Amino acid sequence: MAFQSEDIFARLNEALDMFDSKERQELVKQVNGVFEFHIKKDADVKIWYAEVKNQGVIKAGPAPGNPDITLFLTDDDMVALAVGDLSGARAFITERIGLKGPMMMAMKLDVIFRTLGMGPPKGAADDLAYDGFESSYLIMQISEYLKVLSDDERKAEVAKVKGVFLFNVKNGKGETAVWMMDMKHGIGQMKKGKIEGLKPDIVLEMKDKDFVDLFMGKTNGQKAFMTGKIKVKGAIMLALKLDTMMKDTQEKIGFFGQKQAKL
């Protein structure tokens, strides 16, 4: 039985082979992980792995040693991810991909596809990613979580928060990523850059790593605000609501647990 994924992995490998050593190491630096894919088509299962932690290789068969993350999905969903019809964030939230390992590593699937010329195109209307920012994965996860809620559920979330957030996040290279989250009007939305005609109620400035640590629970939100790791301008109480919202999102999407796909 032919797997469409065979062609996808072959194309990814061809793209990787065209990288020079510097480009390959840049991808390795961004991803820093070993992925094992268990692809199901009807009753058959095939395995591939992507070692994007040292040299950068993609091969058929189980990963040597212990992979950082194992992904379970159908052949059709693997193709949908590769051609950009399905984002990694949405696939995890809707349980179309099962995983064993950290969700943050799983979110880097989009980085692999995008870097190798596949996946969602840069500049798309719903593209929230910035290269070189791990915060992108968190923002995408929150955005996709909102999208899978019903309009009534989204309105209820907006009623709880009642605020417009502007995030200015700086990475180790000194580059800045900007996102705006409107949890004050309608059904709420997340946007890369600013939302035209909308004034933020609160502006949060922080380092990329500190934003990730906050979401991962490694940093206490109140302590981060008090010590200046996160600089706040505007309605300080909204910062506390953001901390609560992130914790609720983590719990509802099972961010820290293993997720089983509905194959």
How would you explain this protein's 3D organization?
The model has no long low-confidence stretch (mean pLDDT 85). Strand 2 and strand 3 (57-60) form a beta hairpin. The longest helix is centred in the last third of the chain and has 18 residues, at 236-253. The protein has eleven helices and ten strands. It is α+β, with helices and mostly antiparallel strands and 263 residues long.
In short:
This protein is 42% helix and 24% strand.
Features:
single chain; 263 residues; alpha+beta; five-stranded mixed β-sheet; 11 helices; globular
Estimate the strand proportion. Answer: 15-25%
SS summary, helix count: 11
Q: In percent, how helical is the residue content?
A: 40-55%
Query: What is the average of the pLDDT values?
Result: 85
Shape: globular
Main sheet attributes: strand count, strand direction, barrel closure: 5 strands, mixed
The side-by-side strand order for the widest beta sheet comes to 3-2-1-4-5
